[in-house]
Amino acid sequence: MAETKSDGTGKKRKVERRFIDAKTGEEIGKSTVVTNADDVAREVTIHKVTAKGDPGKRRPIAIALWVLAIVFEVLAWLVFNGTLANLPGKLVIWLVAFIVLDLICVVVAGQLWKQANHIDPPSEANKAEFFLKSQLGAILSAVAFVPVIILMLTDKEADSQTKKIGTIAAAIALVIGMGTSIDFHPVSEEDLTTMEETAIELGTGTVYWTPFGHKYHLNPDCQAIINSTDIYSGDVQAAFEAGRTDPCKFCAKASGSDVLNELAGNTATEDDTASDEAEATDDATETEEVDEAA
Ligand SMILES: [Zn+2]
To answer: 167 and 210 share a domain?
Structure first.
């Protein structure tokens, strides 16, 4: 009764899924899904994740690294303008080395800053302040390379070969530094609150994500994660900290999410949702008939 074997025609059938706690090995839930997917995970290991809510030392370390990045920028400039001419070996190698060290600091600081913002998001109440806090990594990447690029380009006495290598290296570093430090999905304290409320309204407040998926799901039986044998669960904050900041679209709809739909009081009114619902009901009836016959 629990499951009807796939007959290879792609018809929908019932599959029972068991949810096992990764720590205790105990069954913590069970559900039956109606699907035509062949590789539905029947046994799912749930890894419970608790939100930290504390960015730790990420912000102070990021700031220290940005200061260090600017020190390396100054050193690159001092090599370029001849102040550090007595360094051993070729000066152009020192120039590129300081630019690379500058870049390493900027990239690591940018990542730490973004992580901190996703653990403890800044408020959106003041737009300018929110932009500054969200994109500080990108802004400081510019500070770490643009001045030295301008200084090198405008230096009329410098050797043209050194000038070429220096500016190209710094320009590439600028692109990499900014590209890795921009927060393409900045989150605010307000976003997090809204999402927490939605997760409670539409589900239980618990959300789910997979090791490689980019979104979080409100339903552990969502069609997008139904094949995954390992699922992480926690509140929205925990999903945010894990880098899953966008909710899955399927979960908010009726398709593949009967449980949620009941919880949401069947308030979904979209046409496609209604037809999906009708289809799901038809298929369920069909499967039941097959079960009875067998
Ligand atoms: Zn989903």
So the answer is: no
Q: What pLDDT score does 13 carry?
A: 83
Is there a single domain that holds both residue 161 and residue 255?
no
169 alpha carbon to ligand 1 midpoint, in Å?
A: 43
Residue 38 lies in a domain: yes
Q: How far, in Å, from the CA of 8 to the mean position of ligand 1? A: 26
212-246: per-residue pLDDT in tens? 998 999 888 888 888 899 999 999 999 988 888 88
Show the CA angle centred on residue 262, arms to residues 256 and 265, nearest 5°. Answer: 125
> How many other CB atoms are found less than 10 A from the CB of residue 34?
19
Burial classification of residue 269, based on how many CB atoms lie within 10 Å of its CB (0-12 exposed, 13-18 middle, 19 or more buried): exposed
Length of the chain: 294
Distance from Cα 242 to the centre of ligand 1, integer Å: 16
